[in-house]
Amino acid sequence: MFQNMHKNHIVKSPRVVLITxxxxxxxxxxxxxxxxxxxxxxxxxxxxxxxxxxxxLPLDLTxxxxxxxxxxxxxxxxxHIDVLINNAGVDGAGPxxxxxxxxxxxxxxxxxFGAARLTSEVLPHMxxxxxxxxxxxxxxxxxxxxxxxxxxxxxxxxxxxxxESLRLELRSAGIKACxxxxxxxxxxxxxxxxxxxxxxxxxxxxxxxHVSEVIDQSVNLGLQASDMAFxxxxxxxxxxxxxxxxxxxxxxxxxxxxxxxLPAIILEFTIKKYFKA
Length: 277
Prior knowledge:
globular
């Protein structure tokens, strides 16, 4: 599911890790795996209940003061931050015209601006130690604009371009950055997805219920969160960091690989058929 890293390229020293969205799903699994690997792990969420040994701290990614406070708390406790994992995210689906402006803004506030602000708060501490690693959780949905996923695909694509810029900006400071493109994972994301608040405009999109079923089913049949946790564990310990890591089922990774190969009209037809759009 992901490319193996040669064991000679592995860093074994424990790290101080800050990961957002660690109360459930992928974030919790990643935090648990890193803690078991001997790292000092700080997870964050709106609910800061401790989970299996690693420390949980409250964080609201839409609030600048909350972002500043969590970074200060980690530095006060551990003295530094080695790894930042921007894992927290909001999923959204539905026709664009049926999404409220508030939902559009919230999705970008968490997926892009929250990650950017938290990274900005962490960077001065990484720069002082002349080392650090930033891992941003993107999605294979960022590679192609998916039907009824316009705002989600756009937000994850924005996060990837942000990461690529960071790699160039921070190289001389000894700070590394990468993004991970997961396909579907079996988590509670179906229950937490932002959907159209009302039926406004939905009558123009008769295929939307079918696409919604495909999205839900893909999650239900997705990979296990532990698969992602093992990948992140290896990235954290790697000496050489690639720009992008993809993990998902073969058909999901294939659709991303075909982006620069197939003519646009054929790629669009293939995606539309897969999602029954």
